[in-house]
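job 3f2a | input accepted
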Amino acid sequence: MADRLFRLVLRLLPEEFRAAYARDMAATFRAEAASGPTGARWRTMADVVRRAPGIHADILRRDLRLAIRTLTARPLALIAALVTLTIGIGANVAMYAVIHAVLLAPLPYRDASRLMAVRETGVGGADSGTMGYLTFTDIKTRATSFADLVAASQSITTLAGGGRDAERVNVMRASRTYFDMIGAAPALGRTFTEAEDKPGAARRVMILSDSLWRRRFNADPSVIDRIVELSGIPFKVIGVLPATYQDLVASRLYQGAEIWTPLGYDPAAVFACRTCRHLRVFGRLAPGVTAEQATTEANRLFDAFERETPKDYNQAGADVRPLADLFLGPVRPVLLTLWAGVAALLLVACGNVAHLLMLRASERSEEIAVRTALGVSRTRLVRQFLTESILLAVAGGTAGMAVAWAAVRLVAAEGPDQIPRLAQAAMTVDVVLVGVALTLASGVIFGLLPLRQVLRHAAGGLQRPGVRATDTATAWRSRAALITANVAIAVLLLVGSGLLVRSLGGLLAVAPGVDASGVLTFNIFASGERFRPGQAANLPDDEQNRLQIAAAVQYYDEVLAKIRALPGVTEAAATTQLPLGGDMDQYGFHVHGRATAGTRESEAPSADRFVVTPGYFSALRIRLVRGRLLEDRDRQGAESVAVINETAAREVFRGEDPLGKRVSLGPADAPQRLIVGIVNDVRHGGLDAEVFPQVYVPHGQWAWAETGLAVVVRTTGDPAALGRPIRDLIRGVDAMQPITNMRPYTEVVAASIGTRRFAATLLTVFAATTIVMAMVGLYGSLGVMVSQRRRELGVRLALGATAARVRRLVLVNGLRPVAAGLFAGALLAAVSVGALESMLYGVRPLDAVTFLGAAAALAACAVLACLIPAARAARIDPATTLRN
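job 3f2a | predicted structure (884 res):
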């Protein structure tokens, strides 16, 4: 028993150590067992266990010294391998950091998988993901699938005072249980009470973000219970959120809200109606309930709503989806595609390094044979070569980590805003551990490929002088297989990047309907006592509204007139919704004198509504098709008018002449407007988005005062140069009105396709890098082949073969695996590119032009890579070859 146990303990020692000393150690142990005390045997076993790690470490040190000498013997090959691994590992680690931050990291909510976004759908539903207040309250009252249900809307306010410039701040109005539902608690103060979330509450209250608290209130803890005016209206501060608080709902859906107030809707208010779909609804599933079950129950409730109030619903339904899908669903295909691209890049990098190691193994054939003849085992050879490959991988991985760190910082700072949480990408502990695992796995992968060749050399024994063990077809077939794999992966990446680039080019060629060049845009949110005339005098609501509209119109007339007077400005105007700016505002569109789509209000078509000042169409060069544009005379007291786009004229009026027709926006009984003009379509939702009916109404004739507008200024020079003069001018009119988002309009247009541009750029970089790696591998393989077959080629030339025939022989050998790689890559691409369909515009996944272009580009690169070795082969001197 003790003898068997000792033999097992000896297995802890290295194989070569056991081969030299195990028999003597076993004999000594048996002698001790026969004559010595029992304790001596156990001490002997313990001594073996204690010394085993040191023996392994000593062998590892010797292996590392030999590996370093071997690798540095060829510095150019070492540098090529390190650069290849640095790029491959660095790109993969950086991409994983992005994937981890955006897709894998849990949402910053308690039990986030139970949080749902609830939206109304249907012919008359809010396809943008919103619903009306009365619909929300009915679902909250009747549904049993949700433990809690909240609604939220957006507001914008002006925060002034404290000796600081006025600042525009985004506000999120939410149901009182919002913070309880997502599992967040203030660092200071409290959240809302039920009494505060009711219309006419005794005191308006608000909660501040940590950043706003520090920026405006110097992180003063006594801010709790302080009265602060928002747009001139007093609010009491009741809470401050922690610095670690992250809310995707506030940041992505409500433009980075920094103030939270209670929703406080009055069910009897005009804006609380069922068809006033502007609230986003979120819920937490009840225990044991799935999203599918919640969707089924919500659909049953919508069926009941439609029976109870048919005029408000038309084939309405519900969509209940995880909150993560709402934010991450649109970007998941983009990031996974890029991840696949960098994975392919790493495979090519490993293949290239394996190819270099195979060449080194072929050059070391005599060394391997000698070591084998001296008694070195195959296991020892495998260990030595794996040590070399892992050492190479660690060096490349270390450099790759540095590259990944720089790349992650760059992507986090400069990446598109459309990708949620991209700015949070960082080299965390998890990312570093994945990088370490990837480095070690890469070392094993590209270290295993040459081992077959190494073992074959070990088995072949010593060769005759002047004869290389690698002068066989087997060695070339192994390298040709790597070339084929590299070319196939290069085809896949090149086709994918080509499709995205062509799609991006198609988007850029789309006419947005506006001319963004030479235009400066910014936002003003006008607020204060001057915009609430008549409120203090308790005038009737209608009179107050009329005075507020007049005050807003007067302010913007003054601001725009002063801007037009600046040198270099040709036109200035303002609008409620900036095309491609991300804002949406749809209203029901009712044509008087005929039924537009049935008798129910919910069946009326919807139109994008724009409230604009005169000169808006000229500033953005929106073309007049028929009729006239909005003019200065279109104000209060004049006949209410509107201008529509071509899509509205075509789809709503269907062959009738819209000019002279009267329409209402919102409820069917809203004031009528005379259509006086038709303009070209504007791509408002995105360059690839469908164009909906659009209606433009004069700023002075809208039903309520529009004080928050986007200003567009057309210039003859650089728009950015007018930034400071315009800011000074507006402060001179009213220093209390904040100016935000000032930038050239071309940046707004570019940002609308930021995610597509990001994906196309990165995938193109990956494809270009892969092509370079594949062609370097091809060039190196052919160069080695020519070198190893130099005697054969010289004999061919001596026997009458022409230089052209030798060049052709080398080219055929080199291009044969390339052709196989092109075919395999085309098949792989045909199967894989369907995953890109959601990111394509104006091009099909199996686009023949892209496939043929990718194949032609790679074939041309392959020919260039083969020409130099082929030319070198043709210049071999037959006489020198024969003498040698």
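job 3f2a | Residues 464-471 have pLDDT under 50 and may be disordered.
job 3f2a | closed
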